[in-house]
C-alpha cells in the first residue's frame, strides 16, 4: 500500500501544492475502496473475478489515472502569475481510482482468499481486519501528502513547483501505461492467443 503508485503519487502532489488537509476526502475514499474490496472479496470470494473482468476494470482505472494526470499537468502554475493550485482531490476521486486500480485487487485477493482463511479470519473478524487494513490504506496517500507538504514548504521557486507537478503527471502517465500493459494488454493478448491456438 505504501509503494509509489497512482494513489500515493497524487497524495504527494497534493502535499506539494499545500492541499494535504483539503484532500482528506480523497484519502477517505481510498480507505473506503480498500474496505469495500476486502469485504467484497472476503465474503463473496474470488470465484466470480475472472481475468477478463479484471482487464476491463484495469482499462477503466488506466483511463481515470490518465484523466487525473492531464488535470495535474494542466494545473501547473504560470510563471510570473500567482500560484494556482491544482484541483483539490475529492472523496469520489479516491474511491473510483482505488476501486478501478487492478493492483488494489491483486493485493486484496490473496489476502482474503488465502491468508485470512489460513489464519481463521472470517465472519465478524473479517470486518475488523478489513477495517484495520482500510485505515492503513487511508494512511498511505496521507503519508505521501505529509512528505509533499514538508518538501513543498521548502520550495519557493515556482519553476520547481511546476517541474514537480509535471513530473507527477508524467509518473501517473507511466503508471497508467504499465498497469495497462500488465493488467489489460497481456491478459487480453494471452486470451486471444489461446483462442487462436
List the helices and strands and how they pair.
Blueprint (H helix, E strand, L loop, with lengths): L5 H11 L7 H21 L6 H24 L16 H9 L2 H17 L5 H31 L3 H39 L1
Helix pairs in contact: 1-6, 1-7, 2-4, 2-5, 2-6, 3-4, 3-7
Membrane topology: Multi-pass membrane protein
Protein name: LysE family transporter
Subcellular location: Cell membrane
Structure description:
By secondary structure, the chain is mainly α. The chain has one domain (about 5-195). It is about 75% helix and about 0% strand. It contains 7 helices and no strands. α2 packs antiparallel against α6 (about 125-155), α3 (about 50-75) runs antiparallel to α4 (about 90-100) and α3 packs antiparallel against α7. The chain is globular. Keywords: Cell membrane, Membrane, Transmembrane, Transmembrane helix. It is found in: Cell membrane.
Please tag this protein with its features:
197 residues, mainly alpha, 7 helices, 77% helix, globular
- Sheet bearing the most strands, described? none
Give the fraction of residues assigned to helices.
over 70%
- Return Rg in Å: 18 Å
Structural class: mainly alpha
Order of helices and strands: HHHHHHH
How many E strands? 0
Quaternary arrangement of the chains shown? single chain
The domain count comes to: 1
Condensed summary:
The chain has 197 residues and is mostly helical. It has 7 helices and no strands. α2 (24-44) runs antiparallel to α6 (124-154) and α3 runs antiparallel to α7.
Amino acid at each position: 500500500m505504501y509503494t509509489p503508485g497512482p494513489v500515493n503519487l497524487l497524495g504527494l502532489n497534493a502535499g506539494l501544492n499545500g492541499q494535504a488537509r483539503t484532500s482528506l476526502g480523497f484519502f477517505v475514499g481510498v480507505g473506503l475502496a480498500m474496505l469495500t474490496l476486502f469485504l467484497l472479496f472476503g465474503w463473496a470470494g474470488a470465484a466470480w473475478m475472472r481475468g477478463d473482468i479484471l482487464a476491463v476494470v484495469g482499462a477503466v482505472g488506466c483511463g481515470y489515472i490518465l484523466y487525473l494526470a492531464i488535470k495535474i499537468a494542466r494545473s501547473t502554475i504560470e510563471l510570473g502569475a500567482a500560484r494556482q493550485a491544482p484541483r483539490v482531490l475529492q472523496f469520489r476521486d479516491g474511491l473510483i481510482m482505488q476501486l478501478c486500480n487492478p493492483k488494489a485487487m491483486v493485493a486484496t485477493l490473496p489476502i482474503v482468499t488465502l491468508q485470512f482463511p489460513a489464519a481463521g479470519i472470517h465472519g465478524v473478524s473479517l470486518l475488523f481486519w478489513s477495517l484495520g487494513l482500510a485505515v492503513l490504506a487511508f494512511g498511505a496517500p496521507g503519508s505521501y501528502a505529509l512528505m509533499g507538504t514538508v518538501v513543498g514548504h521548502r520550495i519557493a521557486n515556482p519553476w520547481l513547483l511546476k517541474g514537480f507537478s509535471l513530473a507527477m503527471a508524467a509518473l501517473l502517465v507511466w503508471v497508467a501505461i504499465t498497469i495497462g500493459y500488465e493488467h489489460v494488454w497481456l491478459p487480453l493478448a494471452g486470451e486471444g492467443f489461446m483462442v487462436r491456438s
